[in-house]
Each structure stands twice: as structure tokens, then as C-alpha cells.
């Protein structure tokens, strides 16, 4: 049993990586002690499918293993297998109707099927379409029963849905786009026109898959959705049951966001996929493109772990698929395969064999491959009767016009070349429009000297892996397209080519055919090691293990996330209090929500923040209330606050509290007269420079700070520019200046040192109490804002217990009459007593209300205030600090959006008469 490496005792993993490593060791351990389990099942199954690619209906064995619990060889009970629901468009078998209630099942061809057949560690069921329209109930029942024996569950799609969803949206739209081929040339307009109906069918089909999953789902199951056919499925599943563990894996490339951006349904598709807990791709590049599409198109945050939306993380990672290499290696020993090998060797004696195995799909670059072979023959006449190219082109998606066109194109080229270089007894290209059975395919791989994989784009390409697995004795050469996912794993051993460059491929063929044995061996060994260690079993186990772990991680994260504001409680306590203070931020708190989707947001509108129109009424009512004091405390400058709030009876604190006025009075400031602002010019210079060079960024020059905002700029470019700017500022203009830098999600602010909302609130409070002649202490505080890091000190200001390290803050006093009660301050929310210092009583503190930090009118006389008593009589439960749309914060509570702020203030206002 894996344990502590040094003392053998079990260890408790603390981090995600530790958990995953432990999990990996556990899997290795299980495999080591239960090897027969895996191999026996695998072999039975492989042979079942391999015989003549027809599944025997009576065989009580399917693509997946039957038992969940069973006896080990030594009689011990084996581990409980995780239940896994694999959901893919196609089942691993296609059904052929033989009578009203009888069906024959044939194995489907394709990389996804091959890979998932290797998945044996789970108690798995496969949910998908059987590739046939079954309109009648008798037929559906009989097929369901036949498939159940193979642990497959059908989704019945009618002809129209298949036409619109599978042939249309999936294969005519998503497939070419995801492979960078663009929309089909000839019927591009028609495709664009039929988009909406096809997309509707796509969503409908996905919902039909979801319905079947929901019917068969049991608590604790892992649901693994596959491929571009089912991008809507994660959302449908999570809407039905948010606790379901949902993973989604894409078998094709995920294109650059510039391509994905063309899809009219681009945002809906991304959002649906993001509903999954874990999203997987074959390569890091595809994962990177996906994250970038989410940041650029949806405006979400991309992190090294994945994509974050309102604190919810969807993990995104690369899980390169593999094959069940053992199955191929073992098959080579079978007598029927050996017979095939012998036959093939005799048939092609004296000639080198080159092989291509592809579905007849435009992404596979078959015409380009054949043209390169033609060029090779043209330039190397000595090879013409010494080499043969065997091209297996498996028919696929034959109802889609583009695929029909490709078939005739390939036939035409092959015919021309064979006519040109063929002899009476031999042709250079053997082209087969059909699939081969497993044994024939293995034999073919084994006798091949050079395999040619020239995909124009390919998610992974398993043919290249299978070829390598079957080459232990021959050690043939693999020519591999750099645009196949496999190039990232087999790149070192293969000869990598750009399939669009026909001359390069032609010369690579020459290089491969002439390659010395020792180089062939070295290259082969490298690839063989990879193929035999990165298997489909490993792939599936890693994905499922990470999916399980993602759920654990999400639970841990949820615990760190703030609880939602208990609105009813906040309202009730408001009504029960008699001197209440509402401190409200402005930007992203009281403003209208704007759509910040990169290029589409209303930048012009947002650059001048406006009060949410629905807040006007409630705010007016709250401000009129004698027992309520409203303060808007913002980083914005005075003009903006004047414009938005001039008409209300409230307090305005501009530039993070540096300026203050009651709307009935004039602006005052506590900005020290000798505040050193020498740094402003040089920072402004830098901000101007970056604004000029970062399209759609802008900056604001305030009296005590400068703010550079890149919210509407390209996210990645903006972030790079911000990094560059900060580096420059820290090493140059502000290296010795008395400034603070506040980094927002998409902004950089440089302020005079110590200017924070928390530092200002004390002085503001003093002025309010004094100015309003408050007789009773404040007994209710609601502090709501989208306050960034440094400004979060405002939330803690009102917390009754402060950590010892808290720096002294400027204090204030109540004016006369004195004799008010000493504040009753209850315990803070979650602070450990050991970290606390004694309760803070404002009445005992010396104020510098009139000192250097005191309020000065902007133009005329000074205010004077008398010594007084306690400003606050705040019971812990009468204090509500609330962060708006920032899940991690020092505030006690969270409000999701500005709309929630509207609801809250409306409710408070409704309590007033
Ligand atoms: O079912 P079809 O429409 O006939 O297509 C067959 C499969 O083609 C695609 O395969 C991809 O998956 C492979 C394994 O991950 C990968 O190696 C290859 O590069 C991909 O093209 C498709 O993604 C599957 O859904 C289809 O079943
Ligand atoms: O006659 C054939 C030709 C191919 N294949 C299988 O089809 C899969 C093709 O997968 P790949 O990843 O190369 O490409 P895909 O077709 O999925 O795009 C491989 O596992 C092949 O073994 C097959 O079973 N019979």
C-alpha cells in the first residue's frame, strides 16, 4: 500500500498534486496485485470485437466489464469499481436490423471507440446513438435489450434530428471549423442560413442524451461526456442535478479563439461546456485555445487551473489519449494474424510497403498524401517498382456532400497515378474504400516499412500509435503530420512534416525509405516506449481521478468563499435599529450593470459611471429617513459623485475618502497640505505611454491617484501590458515615492501612500457625527461595495475585534453631550481569540479630528468639535459588511451582482413609511 516513502506509514495528502500522486500510486498498486483481472477481461473483449467485427448477440460480454464486486484469484474481495457513464454520440457498436425484433451489432470504427475499449478499471456503461433510425416501439425495445448485453444504452434520434444535428451542425459546421477548414465552400451561404434550425436540433439532441443519462444516473456516478457532438450536455446535466460529477472531453482540436469566434452560437457553446467540472483536451495547445476563447469571448478569468466565473472554477487540462497497446502486441502472436502477415509478405515481396489508414475525411489529407507519393515516384524513378502505397480509406459520414465529393476526388487522383506509373502486373497505389477487421489491420501494420499520416488537422490520430505498437520487430518509420495531436508525443521518433508542403512530404518519403537500421531502431524505441506507457487505460483513469479530485477541490474552495448576505436578517435588524449608517461604494455597486464582453461592451457608457436607474427611488427614500445616514464612498472624483448624487440628502466621500461633503454643504478635504505628489507627473507620463499602446484602454487622472483601466482591451495583451507597466513603475518612477499600487482585475491604480477607504472612514465618521449633532451612537452599519484589496480595510474597521498587528488608525470622537454608553462590542465572525487584542472602544481613543489630518473646508472656515463619547454601539449582528461580486474578501458576506444591491436597497426602503 503506498504510504510515506520514508517510514511506510500512510500519508494524508494536503494539496491537489499530493492527492493526484497518491491516487496514481494506488492505481499502480491495484494493477500490480490484480493483473489477471485486467488482462483477462481485455483479451476476451478484444477478441470478441476482433473476430470478424461482428458482435455475437449471445455473448454475455460487452465493451465494458460486467462485475462491480468479484472474487480475486486468491479469493479476496477486489476493489469496488467506480460507476462510469460514458456518453458519446455513437455507441461502440452500430446496429443492423435483421427482422422486426432482431438486431445484429457491429463494432463502429474510429479513434474514440478504439480508445474507450481500453477502459477497464470502471464499472462502465456507454450511452449513445446506435447509428440507425428506429421509429417503432418493437424495434426500440428489441434493440435496447440487445444492447443491454453489451452494457450499452441507446439514445433514439429520428431521421430529421440526425440530419440536422449530426450531418448538419456537427459534421458540416463544427467539424470543419474545429479543424481550421472553414465552412464548406460551395454551400457556405446555405450553411449559414440553416444555422439556426441546425443549432436548435443540436440542442434538442443534446437534451435527448441528457434525458437518457438522467434516467440511468445513480448518486456517485461519474458522467463522462465526449466530443463536439455533446457540447451542450454538461449544462443540461447540471441543470437537472447540480451535484452530478460531469466531465467533458474533446477528441478534436479546439481551434484558436479567432476561429471559434465565427460561430453564431460561440458563447452558448462555451458556457454549456463550462458547466462541467472538468474539461479535457488532447494537447495543451487545445486547452490553451479553449481558455483563451473563454476569456476573449465571454470575458471570464483564465487561470493556470482553468476558467473562473464568479468564483466557480471549471478545471481545464490536457489528457492525451492512448491506445490499449497490449491488445495490439498480443494480437500479433495470434495464428490468424501470423497467417495474414505471411500472405502480405509474399504478396509484396521485393517491394517496400508504405501504409495509410484513415477515415475518408478531408482532415486526413489523403489527396495531399497521394500527390506527395506521386512526386516521390516522379523524382525517384528507381523506386517505381520497389515501393507500394496501401491506402485504407474507411467510408465515413457518407450522407454529407463534402465527404461524397472527397471520395470522387481521391478516386480520380489514384486512377491517374496508377495509370501513369502502373505496369501490366503491378500498380503503385492500392486504394481500398472499406474498413479492415482488427486482425487484418494488425498484420498490415506489422509488415509496413513506412507509415504515412498526413492529417491537415487531427485531434490525436491513433493510427500512428497502433502502427508503432505493431512494429516491435520491423522498426519501421513513421512520417507524421505536425498538425496531428500525436506529433506532440511521437514527434521525437517520427519524421514530422507539413502535409501542405507536398515536396517536403515527398522528400521525407525518400528519407524514410533509405533510413539506416540504427536510426530506425532509435526512433522506434522512443515511440514504442511512449505508446506502451501512455495507454488508453491510463488516459481514462487519469481523467476520472482528476474529475473526482476536482469535486474535492471545489468543495474546499466553496468553504473559503463568502456566504451570501442574509438579506431578510439585514432588513429586519435595520428596522429594529434607531441610528443606522449605510456606507455604499459606487462603481460596480450602485452602477448599472454593463456587458463587458471584450469587444462588445459599452465602453463609452461605462467610462462615465451612472447610478442604476432602479436605485433612484429607494435611495431617495433612504436618504430622507431621519434615522438613516447614507454615505457613498468611492474612488471616483468629486464631479462624478456630484453628478450622480447631488440631488440626494447624503454624504459623498470622493477619491477614497480624501474629499467629503454633505450634499447640502461644500467639499472638505483631509488631504494634508504637504502631501507629496511629486510622483504624479512621471506616473502620468507612463500611463499615457501605455494608453497609447494598448487599444481601448484609458486612464483617469484624479487629485490623489491615477487609474489605468484596460477592461475593454484584449485581455491577454492588457495583462501583459499591465505587467510591463508595473515592472517599469516599480523600478523607475515610483521606486522611492510614497505611493501605493492597487491592482484591480483589469486596472492599475497608483495612489498617495496610506489613502484607503478604511483609513478614511474614521475621519468621515467623526465629521458626520459632529455635523449631524448625533446624540445617540450608531447601532446599525451596512457597508456594501466592490472594494479592492487595500480598500478592504473598511470592512474590518467596524469589526469589533482586531488583530494585534493592526496599525493604529486615526480616531474620532463624539461631540457633546457626553455620557453615552461605552460600546457593546460582540465577538467577530470567525476570528480565533488567540489572535485578538482587546475590544476596541472608540470612546477611549484620542482623535486628531482637528489636527493635521482633520477636515478642512475647501474654501472657508474650519470645523470645531468637542470631546465626546462613543460613536458606535454596534452589536456584531447589527453589522453587515458585504462584498459585491468578489467571492474572496474580508467582508462578512457576499452579494453576487449590482442587481442584488438593488433588491437589498429596495427592501430596506420598503420598510420606511
Ligand atoms: O463517428 P464518425 O462520425 O464516423 O467519426 C468517427 C470519430 O472521429 C473522430 O475521432 C477523433 O477521436 C480520436 C480519438 O480521440 C482522435 O485520435 C482523432 O484525432 C479524432 O478525429 C471524432 O472525434 C469521433 O467522435 C468520431 O466517433
Ligand atoms: O479499417 C479500419 C481502419 C481504422 N480502424 C480504426 O479507426 C481508428 C482511427 O482513429 P484515429 O484516431 O486515427 O482517427 P479518427 O478516425 O478517430 O479521426 C483506429 O483506432 C483504427 O484502428 C479500424 O478499426 N478499421
From TrEMBL:
Catalytic activity of the protein: D-glucose 6-phosphate + UDP-alpha-D-glucose = alpha,alpha-trehalose 6-phosphate + UDP + H(+)
Domain of life: Eukaryota
Signal peptide residues on this chain, from the entry's feature table: none
EC number: 2.4.1.15
GO biological process, one term: trehalose biosynthetic process
Family label: In the C-terminal section; belongs to the trehalose phosphatase family.
Identification of the protein by name: alpha,alpha-trehalose-phosphate synthase (UDP-forming)
Organism per entry: Manihot esculenta
Amino acid at each position: 500500500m503506498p504510504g510515506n516513502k520514508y517510514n511506510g506509514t500512510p500519508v494524508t495528502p494536503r494539496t491537489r498534486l499530493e492527492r493526484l500522486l497518491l491516487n496514481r500510486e494506488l492505481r499502480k498498486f491495484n494493477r500490480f496485485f490484480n493483473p489477471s483481472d485486467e488482462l483477462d477481461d481485455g483479451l476476451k473483449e478484444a477478441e470478441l470485437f476482433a473476430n470478424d467485427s461482428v458482435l455475437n448477440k449471445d455473448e454475455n460480454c460487452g465493451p465494458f466489464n460486467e462485475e462491480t464486486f468479484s472474487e480475486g484469484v486468491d479469493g479476496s474481495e477486489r476493489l469496488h469499481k467506480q460507476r462510469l457513464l460514458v456518453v458519446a454520440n455513437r455507441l461502440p457498436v452500430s446496429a443492423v436490423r435483421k427482422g422486426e425484433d432482431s438486431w445484429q451489432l457491429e463494432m463502429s470504427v474510429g479513434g474514440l471507440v478504439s480508445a474507450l475499449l481500453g477502459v477497464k478499471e470502471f464499472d462502465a456503461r456507454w450511452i449513445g446513438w446506435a447509428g440507425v433510425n428506429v421509429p417503432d416501439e418493437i424495434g426500440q425495445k428489441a434493440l435496447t435489450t440487445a444492447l443491454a448485453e453489451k452494457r450499452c444504452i441507446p439514445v433514439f434520434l429520428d431521421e430529421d434530428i440526425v440530419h440536422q444535428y449530426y450531418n448538419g451542425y456537427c459534421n458540416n459546421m463544427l467539424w470543419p471549423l474545429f479543424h481550421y477548414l472553414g465552412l464548406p465552400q460551395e454551400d457556405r451561404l446555405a450553411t449559414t442560413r440553416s444555422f439556426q434550425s441546425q443549432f436548435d436540433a443540436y440542442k434538442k439532441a443534446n437534451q435527448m442524451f441528457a434525458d437518457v443519462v438522467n434516467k440511468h444516473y445513480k448518486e456517485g456516478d461519474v458522467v463522462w461526456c465526449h466530443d463536439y457532438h455533446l457540447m451542450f450536455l454538461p449544462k443540461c446535466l447540471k441543470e437537472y442535478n447540480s451535484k452530478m460529477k460531469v466531465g467533458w472531453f474533446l477528441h478534436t482540436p479546439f481551434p484558436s479563439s479567432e476561429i471559434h469566434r465565427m460561430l453564431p452560437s460561440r458563447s452558448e457553446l462555451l458556457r454549456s461546456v463550462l458547466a462541467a467540472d472538468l474539461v479535457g483536451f488532447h494537447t495543451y495547445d487545445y486547452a490553451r485555445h479553449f481558455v483563451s476563447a473563454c476569456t476573449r469571448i465571454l470575458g471570464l478569468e483564465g487561470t493556470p487551473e482553468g476558467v473562473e466565473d464568479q468564483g466557480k472554477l471549471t478545471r481545464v487540462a490536457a489528457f492525451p489519449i492512448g491506445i490499449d497497446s497490449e491488445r495490439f502486441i498480443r494480437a500479433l502472436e495470434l495464428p490468424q494474424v501470423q497467417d495474414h502477415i505471411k500472405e502480405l509478405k509474399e504478396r509484396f515481396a521485393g517491394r517496400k510497403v508504405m501504409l495509410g489508414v484513415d477515415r475518408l475525411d478531408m482532415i486526413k489529407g489523403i489527396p495531399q498524401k497521394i500527390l506527395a507519393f506521386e512526386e516521390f515516384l516522379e523524382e525517384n524513378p528507381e523506386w517505381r517498382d520497389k515501393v507500394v502505397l496501401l491506402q485504407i480509406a474507411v467510408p465515413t459520414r457518407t450522407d454529407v456532400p463534402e465527404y461524397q465529393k472527397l471520395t470522387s476526388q481521391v478516386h480520380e487522383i489514384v486512377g491517374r497515378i496508377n495509370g501513369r506509373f502502373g505496369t501490366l502486373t503491378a500498380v503503385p497505389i492500392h486504394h481500398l474504400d472499406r474498413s479492415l477487421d482488427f486482425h487484418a489491420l494488425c498484420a498490415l501494420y506489422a509488415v509496413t516499412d513506412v507509415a504515412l499520416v498526413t492529417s491537415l488537422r487531427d485531434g490525436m490520430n491513433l493510427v500512428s500509435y497502433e502502427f508503432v505498437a505493431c512494429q516491435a520487430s520491423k522498426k519501421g518509420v513513421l512520417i507524421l503530420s505536425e498538425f496531428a495531436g500525436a506529433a506532440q508525443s511521437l514527434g521525437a521518433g517520427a519524421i514530422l512534416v507539413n502535409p501542405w508542403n507536398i515536396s517536403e512530404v515527398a522528400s521525407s518519403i525518400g528519407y524514410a525509405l533509405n533510413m539506416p537500421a540504427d536510426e530506425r531502431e532509435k526512433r522506434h524505441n522512443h515511440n514504442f516506449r511512449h505508446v506502451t506507457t501512455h495507454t488508453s487505460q491510463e488516459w481514462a483513469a487519469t481523467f476520472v481521478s482528476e474529475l473526482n479530485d476536482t469535486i474535492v477541490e471545489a468543495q474546499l474552495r466553496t468553504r473559503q468563499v463568502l456566504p451570501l448576505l442574509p438579506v431578510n436578517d439585514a432588513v429586519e435588524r435595520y428596522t429594529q435599529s434607531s441610528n443606522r449608517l449605510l456606507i455604499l461604494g459606487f462603481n460596480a455597486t450602485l452602477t448599472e450593470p454593463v456587458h463587458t464582453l471584450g469587444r462588445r461592451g459599452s465602453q463609452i457608457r461605462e467610462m462615465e459611471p451612472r447610478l442604476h436607474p432602479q436605485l433612484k427611488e429607494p435611495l431617495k427614500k433612504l436618504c430622507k429617513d431621519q434615522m438613516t445616514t447614507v454615505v457613498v464612498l468611492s474612488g471616483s472624483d468629486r464631479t462624478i459623485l456630484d453628478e450622480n448624487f447631488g440631488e440626494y440628502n447624503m454624504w459623498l466621500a470622493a477619491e477614497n475618502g480624501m474629499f467629503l461633503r454633505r450634499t447640502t454643504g461644500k467639499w472638505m478635504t483631509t488631504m494634508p497640505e504637504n502631501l507629496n505628489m511629486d510622483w504624479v507627473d512621471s506616473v502620468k507620463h507612463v500611463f499615457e505611454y501605455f494608453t497609447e499602446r494598448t487599444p481601448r484602454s484609458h486612464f483617469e487622472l484624479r487629485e490623489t491617484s491615477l487609474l489605468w483601466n484596460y477592461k475593454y482591451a484584449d485581455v491577454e495583451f492588457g495583462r501583459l501590458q499591465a505587467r510591463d507597466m508595473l515592472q517599469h513603475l516599480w523600478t523607475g518612477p515610483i521606486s522611492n515615492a510614497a505611493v501605493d499600487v492597487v491592482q484591480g482585475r483589469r486596472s492599475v491604480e497608483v495612489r498617495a501612500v496610506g489613502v484607503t477607504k478604511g483609513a478614511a472612514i474614521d475621519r468621515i465618521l467623526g465629521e458626520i457625527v459632529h455635523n449631524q449633532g448625533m446624540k445617540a451612537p450608531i447601532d446599525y452599519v451596512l457597508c456594501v461595495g466592490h472594494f479592492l484589496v487595500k480598500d478592504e480595510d473598511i470592512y474590518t474597521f467596524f469589526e469589533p475585534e482586531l488583530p494585534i498587528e493592526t496599525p493604529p488608525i486615526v480616531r474620532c470622537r463624539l461631540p457633546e453631550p457626553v455620557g453615552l454608553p461605552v460600546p457593546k462590542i460582540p465577538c467577530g465572525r470567525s476570528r480565533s481569540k488567540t489572535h485578538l487584542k482587546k475590544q476596541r472602544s472608540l470612546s477611549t481613543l484620542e482623535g486628531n479630528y482637528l489636527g493635521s489630518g482633520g477636515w478642512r473646508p475647501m474654501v472657508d472656515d474650519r470645523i470645531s468639535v468637542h470631546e465626546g463619547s462613543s460613536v458606535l454601539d454596534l452589536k456584531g449582528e447589527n453589522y453587515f459588511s458585504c462584498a459585491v461580486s468578489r467571492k474572496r474578501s474580508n467582508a462578512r458576506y457576499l452579494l453576487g451582482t449590482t442587481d442584488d444591491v438593488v433588491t437589498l436597497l429596495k427592501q430596506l426602503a420598503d420598510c420606511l413609511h
